[in-house]
Structures are given as structure tokens and as C-alpha cells.
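DUF1272 domain-containing protein
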Amino acid sequence: MLELRPNCECCDKDLPPEATDALICTFECTFCAECVEHVLGGVCPNCGGNFAPRPIRPAAKLTKYPASTKRVLKADGCGSSKAA
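Structure:
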């Protein structure tokens, strides 16, 4: 099940479960559309993969399956890709 991380790993923008501008890679790295387009060039700086829109969990399911509250932020910023 997706964690639905609460923020962009690049700029720390809040990305609540219903955010339509949240994008994820196959490892669920989470970034906002602005950073993906203008900073990352569509490439995940963690794995080198591409991004897809993060699905929106129906509000009725958030009670039983809540979104993550753990914020992930790249300590070194995200200006350059360093794929693993």
C-alpha cells in the first residue's frame, strides 16, 4: 500500500493525500509537479526513474489506511540527479 508521503522531497511543499500535483517514482519518492518539471527534469534524483501521478486515496479509506506523516527531505537538495 502506498505511504502517501506528506511533502515534496525537494522543496518541502505540503502534499496532502488529495494533492493532484504529487508525483511518485517506482520507489515512491514523492515530489511536487513544479520540482519534477523545473528542477529534476522528470528524472528521480534517488533512483534515476521517471514519475507518475500519485493516486488519490478515497477519503472514506483514509481513516482505516491513513497517509504517512513522516516527512522526507533531501538534505543535499535536489538540483542534481545522483541515480543509485
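The helical segments are 33-38, 59-62.
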